[in-house]
Design a protein that fits this description.
This protein is of the alpha/beta class. 37% of the residues lie in helices and 12% in strands. Strands 5-3-13-10-4-8-6-7 form an eight-stranded mixed β-sheet, sandwiched between helices. Strands 1-2 form a two-stranded antiparallel sheet. It has a two-stranded parallel ribbon with strand order 9-14.
């Protein structure tokens, strides 16, 4: 297939080779030449922003704690941070900002590696989907570029090129490859308890990976209970939110969106809405219906009928923190056999299918050190994962002005291959009007797991020679 495989290039410049994972003698820092084109510098800065975003937002928050002008705002904001449920009530697809997701910085981010999405089959917007992204890598760079950003404009010949099942497009093109599907990338619930960073994650369209969040997103409860249209831009969107395919917005709307960030009226309204949203905490429940923006709750005697929805999707990085500890260049080692939660989720929700996603190159973005089993470093990493739910392996990348020392990922091509849907047998046989099946049995879960693994292995066997020619062995499912 044209454009798949071979040496990666960005704007005519050869991408530095992927790290081999082996020690090299005579180590020295390889500085970048001064005559690097501006676009490549901007690509590096875009990736640097993504890598350092958490630290930068924490710095801003702690700096504001020492600023007396911010003290009237911080207490209500922190209370809002503790009480808000936006990250797990299914609101993410409707409050995310099409402006932030389509900023030019994300086109530079996707061009840095570059990231490409390879669609192997079309997906119907009449169904719901659970995308299982693997491998985790260090920080799941490919998942962010493929499923969070929306930076690519609609292609001119979209109708003609979309006739074929298999199609390759740059990162940021998910809405063009899979029109009509509202996808949400999920991350740890603790990320939404980090001040300011939480607002950034919600604006980019992420949500919690908790069971409550997954069920709300797949069922579309937030849209029904709040009487929302199928697309909405949210508080941070530009002049009415999404308008057009994939949430594209015109130039005038972008200008209005940028100006809103520096408008004192915008921030005053934000503070007023924040205080209003906290009033129910301090008032009796009988007065909640009289608050601005609140309507009386429906009586239990006439509950809304449960309907089967479609077009909702979530992306789960299946391997999690444990799989991150297996990250090593030129290898693909997955944690999958004991991951049963997302399989049961697909069995519980009608009209839902699984879609395996395999990211070639995700493990090559950093050099890593795998500690020996039983060593103190191995014990420390697993202890942190057990206590905090996440851990970071020992890794190193390149720098802003050099090619081999720093924390910026290497320029290695990331090919995110989206497989065919795997529909549970119970939903293949179920029809509208039939009684809903009960809780899934263990045999049903294992059957679905085998079908999922078969599709994942099919992706590997079909694409490994084109996208992973320098691999050290085949894909390995560790546990």
């Amino acid at each position: 297939m044209d454009g798949v495989g071979g040496e990666a290039e960005v704007d005519g410049h050869a991408v530095p080779p992927a790290p081999s994972g082996k020690k090299k003698r005579g180590f020295r820092i390889r500085f970048a030449p001064l005559c690097i084109p501006l676009r490549r510098r901007l690509q590096t800065l875009a990736v640097l922003w993504h890598v350092l975003a958490l630290g930068l937002f924490l710095t801003v928050f702690w700096s504001s704690c020492f600023n007396p002008l911010m003290w009237p705002i911080l207490p209500p904001y922190l209370l809002h941070l503790l009480l808000s449920s936006s990250h797990h009530n299914g609101a993410s697809p409707y409050i995310r900002s099409s402006l932030l997701r389509s900023l030019p910085i994300w086109r530079y981010y996707n061009a840095f590696f570059p990231i490409r999405i390879i669609r192997t089959a079309k997906l119907s917007p009449e169904r719901n989907y659970i995308f299982g992204y693997q491998p985790h890598g260090i920080i799941s760079l490919g998942a962010w570029g493929a499923f969070v950003t929306d930076s690519e404009p609609a292609p001119a010949n979209s109708e003609e090129g979309d006739e074929s099942e298999c199609r390759v497009m740059p990162g940021g093109s998910f809405s063009h490859l899979f029109p009509g599907i509202r996808n949400t990338l999920l991350t740890l619930d603790g990320n939404f308890r980090i001040p300011i960073y939480r607002e950034y994650m919600l604006s980019m369209g992420l949500a919690s990976v908790s069971r409550r969040s997954c069920e709300a997103l797949l069922s579309g409860d937030y849209a029904r209970t709040h009487a929302l249209p199928s697309q909405s831009g949210g508080f941070w969107s530009a002049k009415g939110g999404d308008s057009g395919p994939g949430g594209a917005i015109n130039g005038r709307a972008k200008i209005y969106g940028y100006l809103s960030y520096i408008s004192p009226i915008h921030w005053l309204l934000f503070i007023v809405r924040l205080f209003v949203s906290l009033l129910p905490v301090f008032l009796p429940s009988r007065l909640h219906s009289h608050l601005p923006g609140n309507t009386p709750a429906p009586t239990p005697a006439s509950p809304a009928p449960k309907t089967v929805t479609g077009g909702n999707a979530i992306t789960i990085v299946v391997g999690g923190a444990h799989e991150a500890l297996l990250t090593f260049p030129n290898t693909t080692r997955l944690i999958l056999r004991r991951r049963l939660g997302f399989l049961k989720l697909a069995l519980r929700h009608p009209n839902t299918s699984l879609v395996p996603v395999l990211a070639f190159g995700e493990n090559d973005a950093f050099e890593t050190m795998l500690p020996e089993k039983g060593s103190w470093l191995h014990w420390f990493q697993h202890a942190v994962k057990k206590w905090m739910g996440w851990t970071v392996p020992m890794f190193a990348g390149r720098g802003v002005f050099n090619y081999n020392v720093g924390f910026v990922p290497f320029r290695v091509q990331l090919n995110v291959v989206v497989g065919r849907e795997v529909t549970p047998r119970r939903w293949r046989e179920w029809r509208e009007g039939m009684e809903m099946p009960g809780e899934p049995a263990d045999e049903e879960v294992r059957e679905l797991q085998e079908e999922y693994v078969d599709e994942l292995m099919r992706i590997w066997e079909e694409w490994k020679d084109k996208l992973a020619p320098n691999r050290d062995g085949d894909l390995e499912i560790v546990e």
